[in-house]
Amino acid sequence: MPSVLRSSGTGSSEIEIIVVGCGFAGLACAIESKRKGHKVIVLEKRPSLESLGACALKQSATGLMAICTQHEFMYMHNFDGELLATQPLPQRLYGSNSYNGRRGEIHDVLLQYAKKLGADVRFNQNVETYWEDAERGRAGVIVNGERMEADVVVGADGARSRAREIVLGYEDKPIPSGYAIYRAWFNSREQGLDTDPLTSFFCKKGGEFYAWIGKDVHMLAMSFRDGEEMCWVLTHKDEHDIGESWSYPGKISDVLTYVKDWDPCCSALIRKAPFCVDWKLVQRDPLPTWVSKGGYTIVIGDAAHPFLPSWQSTSTSMQGASQGVEDGVTIATVLDLASKKNIPLATRTFEHIRYDRVRRAQALGESNRNRMHKDPESRDEDVSMPFPEWLLDFDAEKHARNLYDKVSGDILLSGYMRPSELAS
Length: 424
Ligand SMILES: Cc1cc2nc3c(=O)[nH]c(=O)nc-3n(C[C@H](O)[C@H](O)[C@H](O)COP(=O)(O)OP(=O)(O)OC[C@H]3O[C@@H](n4cnc5c(N)ncnc54)[C@H](O)[C@@H]3O)c2cc1C
Prior knowledge:
- By secondary structure, the protein is of the alpha/beta class.
- Helix content is 30%, strand content 27%.
- The protein has two domains: 3-59 and 102-173 and 284-423, 3-Layer(bba) Sandwich (FAD/NAD(P)-binding domain); 175-283, 2-Layer Sandwich (D-Amino Acid Oxidase, Chain A, domain 2).
- The protein is built from eleven helices and 20 strands.
- The protein is elongated.
């Protein structure tokens, strides 16, 4: 017998949602869904949330600053150390706050909040199969041998999504992006950053953001918590296969080969890391749709539109996590507006509301990457990061509420066409 979705929430919408994946997109969906009275179970395959590295979020929320660092300036250098630009990084721009902090800590704030609101978050749940029964208006998953069902399944299972298969009707394999990144995070003083003349400046200020750009290689370095903690990321071309695994322990000696002729503080900083991770980056072509045939399963976040790290694809505007959060808020809102009887209308409206904005954010990053990756000899003068108003002055819930009647009305009147079909 299928187990019926149960939630400890006390909401009123009665829409049952299974969210697969406890990343930023899945948690945002869970939080906003609980706030709107939906019943939510989140299934996460990992035993707990642990992630390495930094995360930059740009959201019109508040409350994360306690664990985040305000980077006031970004110092952009040529690979050889020449200062190209000093860009102010306002904490608040066009109504959006900027949060730079440890990914795991930001993630944990969202997780605790989701749980506090009553979301039923379950770990060690590796979802293997998705199913949908449009006649009964139900969808579900099979996990650890248990068949579960709900009104709607939200696949927030990341760049290697399995939910994508039921949405597309075929298996869509990730392809190597041709890039990989090395990343490290460590305690500055324990690693002697403050006593080395080449690296001590990283510890002096409250929290700074440095960048060096060379042809096809970029390095970012960020200090956090008054210089107590340090993070660096080096993005480079990489031809390795990503078939089996995509995150390996990296070798510091390999990282150093990329910065041989660079500003000497880069190699000094890299050497200070006790270890690093070598992360192969996958990419996907834009999906033709994010909604299954019956309309009861959708993909959101990286499962729908993978964003590579800042400076790789999206940029400079650091939008992967933010766009995932916006997706989560939007789907919760449109489900609320559509009600339990109109799930396919809600999911299709969601897709129309989100599709163009996400593509625009991705395109912004692609153009930034092309600009930054140029040979230093032919690089444009302006290498600063763009923070456009259209991207930052945005309230996902308000936007969904404003557009819902028009978009869902058009779908009802003229039939559902995917946004990708309308564009072609
Ligand atoms: C190295 C790197 C650095 C980045 N830095 C930034 C940054 O600074 N700022 C920014 O905005 N973006 C950044 N991005 C992009 C950003 O991390 C992603 O866009 C964002 O995390 C996507 O969130 P998500 O919730 O969609 O997916 P994910 O965070 O990938 O979460 C998916 C979750 O689903 C779980 N899952 C997968 N399969 C299953 C299954 N079968 N069953 C159950 N659970 C499953 C996974 O374990 C995971 O917890 C970076 C990306 C990379 C790769």
